[in-house]
Design brief:
Blueprint: H1 15-20, H2 23-47, H3 52-60, H4 79-90, H5 94-113, H6 118-130, E1 134-137, E2 155-157, E3 160-166, E4 178-184, E5 194-200, E6 204-210, E7 224-232, H7 241-282, H8 291-319, H9 328-356, H10 358-361, H11 370-376, H12 385-398
Parallel strand pairs: 1-4
Antiparallel strand pairs: 2-3, 3-7, 4-5, 6-7
The structure holds flavin-adenine dinucleotide (FAD).
Flavin-adenine dinucleotide (FAD) binds next to β1 and α12.
Length: about 400
């Protein structure tokens, strides 16, 4: 058996799957789901509830199995395809986009590291066929965003495994069909010797330990739980988490989260544009004084889109080479994408709100940007930018400044 990473296809050219994934067709499927998400976004935010209508539409459009290989019933979509869907959903409801992004990150881990194990392949078949939604547990106890260390070990008895883990939060944990979680390899292993394990809903129970009453991203329902799970040894992915983390978890999380935040920022820019157009029309074509902030918002949005696009293009190119993603510069660039994208997304939404003035600041106008602003403020703290920058210090010192413009 070999790792799936190097042979993970960029494109599938077979039959129906390829037709479904035609970029225009994929965009229109995403748009159908985004329209539903947009209609319910305010209620999802107000009630801090799971965006169930949006996910019914996402399932109807069969978007949850995009990354699954065609041989297992999926569409074998590229990272760029999925990022596009994250962006489109982000413009409608950021919680929906972030849940979708987190699910896809987990599916990428399963698809790229299943190594032909029957249980893992069957899970992928089910995700594609039944449109199962997978949640993610990487943070634990008082460990904050230090996802490269686990406390709870996998306990093994013959072919059976069990895990009891005090999670700090699992987004949409109560609404997911399964959870993909990190864990210490066994009782004797060091905290950094981790594995990734997939559990289906029948395998576990969740005991609530924390609520989710937050400023924004309220629809992600990222409640803290004690996760108690049982399963069989095949549910542990064969690749060590250290490899999954650098080859898949970090790159896909940073690409898909950034795409979702870019979509969120685009939604704010669209609203600010509508406001400035309405204000200009109402005053005989005279631009409102804050119109320059709309231009500024558009500028940072374009920089953000460029950063995400270029990171995905570079990732896909490097993925074609089995060693490509081990390159220090590639790893550093993908790490820093999250920092750059989150900061640009915050700057874009702030500029959009200043363009709208009081109409954007108020909660009760058609131009309100309150939800966008509260949602986007989660981006620098979702794995804290300070932590990422501190972790990148050594790599930045070791790699010289890029000699050319191409990545
Ligand atoms: C919307 C949302 C959804 C989420 N969903 C999930 C989920 O589904 N599953 C999951 O497991 N987790 C989830 N998380 C948690 C997330 O992954 C991080 O663990 C969490 O945001 C970090 O929490 P923290 O700020 O308390 O911890 P920390 O990362 O410890 O940060 C706390 C403070 O310490 C500072 N700090 C910590 N370490 C360093 C360092 N090395 N260098 C410099 N400064 C440092 C930071 O600047 C920060 O101010 C989610 C978070 C959000 C916002």
């Amino acid at each position: 058996m070999t790792s799936n990473v190097s042979r993970f296809p960029a494109r599938n050219l077979h039959g129906d799957a390829a037709e479904e994934r035609d970029p225009r067709r994929l965009r229109s499927r995403a748009k159908e789901a985004a329209d539903v998400a947009a209609r319910h976004a305010a209620a999802v935010d107000r009630d801090a509830r799971f965006p169930s209508e949006a996910f019914a539409a996402i399932r109807e459009q069969k978007l949850l199995g995009l990354l699954i290989p065609a041989a297992l019933g999926g569409e074998e979509a590229s990272a760029a395809d999925v990022a596009e869907v994250c962006y489109i959903l982000g413009g409608a409801c950021a919680s929906t986009a972030m849940i979708f992004a987190m699910h896809q990150v987990k599916v990428a881990c399963l698809a790229r590291h299943s190594r032909g194990v029957a249980w893992q392949e069957n899970l992928q078949r089910r995700i594609a066929a039944e449109q199962l939604l997978m949640a993610s547990s990487t943070t634990e106890g008082s460990n904050g965003g230090n996802v490269r260390s686990s406390e709870a070990p996998v306990r093994t008895q013959g072919q059976h495994i069990s895990l009891e883990r005090a999670t700090s939060c699992i987004s949409y944990g109560e609404h997911a069909d399964g959870i993909v979680t990190t864990a210490r390899r066994n009782e004797a292993a060091a905290g950094s010797d981790q594995v990734l394990v997939a559990f289906l809903k029948d395998d576990y129970s969740l005991e609530r330990t924390q609520s989710w009453d937050t400023l924004g991203m309220r629809g992600t329902c990222s409640v803290g739980f004690i996760l108690r799970a049982k399963g069989v040894a095949e549910q542990v992915l064969a690749d060590p988490y250290e490899r999954i983390h650098s080859q898949t978890m970090v790159p896909f999380a940073h690409m898909f989260w950034s795409a979702a935040w870019a979509g969120l920022a685009a939604g704010a820019v669209q609203r600010a544009r509508d406001f400035v157009r309405a204000a200009a029309r109402a005053s005989g074509g005279k631009m409102p004084p804050a119109a320059a902030h709309l231009t500024r918002a558009r500028l940072s949005l374009e920089t953000l889109r460029g950063a995400v696009h270029s990171a995905i293009e570079s990732f896909e190119r490097r993925s074609r080479d089995s060693e490509g993603l081990d390159d220090l510069n590639a790893q550093t660039a993908l790490n820093l994408l999250k920092v750059e994208a989150s900061e640009l997304a915050v700057a874009t939404v702030l500029s959009a709100m200043r363009a709208c003035g009081l109409s954007g600041y108020r909660n009760d106008t058609e131009f309100t940007l309150g939800r966008h602003l509260r949602d986007v403020l989660s981006s620098p703290i979702m794995i804290n930018n300070d932590r990422i920058l501190a972790n990148a210090e050594a790599a930045v010192l070791m790699s010289g400044a890029p000699a050319g413009l191409s990545f």
